[in-house]
Predict the structure.
Amino acid sequence: MAKIKIGNKLIGAGEPCFIIAEAGSNHNGSLEQAKKLIDVAVASKADAVKFQIYKAESLYSRYTPEFSYLKGQNVYELIKSIETPREWLKELAGYCEDRNITFLATPFDFEAVDLLDKYAPAFKIASFEITDLELLQYAARKGKPMIISTGMANLCEIEDAITAIKSVGTEDILLLHCNSLYPTPVEAVNLKAMETMRTAFKVPIGFSDHTLGIHIPIAAVAMGACVIEKHFTLSREMKGPDHSFAIESAELKELVRCIREVEKAKGTGIKKKSELEGEGYEKARRSIHAKVDILKETKITRDMLIIKRPGYGIKPKFIDVVVGREAKRDIKEDEWITWDAV
């Protein structure tokens, strides 16, 4: 399976998980707060920080019915109030570059694609846009890697998106399993879908998470996710649609730490003792010992032997080989028996 390069990081099987700290609209219209979010992502050691670039006019009709999770807020007016000003992009991208973290943003229209082409090394497309094949193709024509969230999508819709992207010459595609629920209840997550997608499309698969807490994305990494995207905020008490289900700075740092530990714990897949288990291997495993004093030239019987720890002696599986042999020297009661003694 091919690997994809975003910035200076390779993404795919055998590579470290690429962790995207999703700032989204949690800047609340403040450039200073947007920069603080970047600082938090840097401090957490995330690989990238991501914003969202949309305009209410081209995203939602003014007549869109309210969403239940937005608690009676007018959708159009809400989106209008949390837009990321496009004049921020150069400054935010430069701020990220100075702090050695990858700048990403999700474009929701052609103009946003053109602007981000100057600053972002890849395009991230949101779940709701996966069926907008014109937008996908427009972004793909820029020739950069495409990261596609797949919330609500079935395999046919994902295949349509991949076909559209590849039709304009872009092969670097990364899919994120996702649930378009805010927050996502754990019973709706379906992490096993990652393997289904990996088998079906033969591209790197990650997970864009909207559950509460950090344990589900950690589990996703254990199941092979090569990218994790997670919303974060300076405080869940802030007003705005994405703050309540986002994680705060300490949790983001802990998420990254745990993911890196899980990666180490996954290991090579070769079943053998660890080098760190050497002492236990010798002292706590069992071997054949003398149950009684055994004098030199005595023919050894089974009732003269006992299997116990430590494991310095002959392995227990060879006890039938030891039985019937003569002792070459005196063997003390409770002494482990080695091959040079029989």
User: Anything to note?
Assistant: The first strand starts at residue 4 and ends at 6.
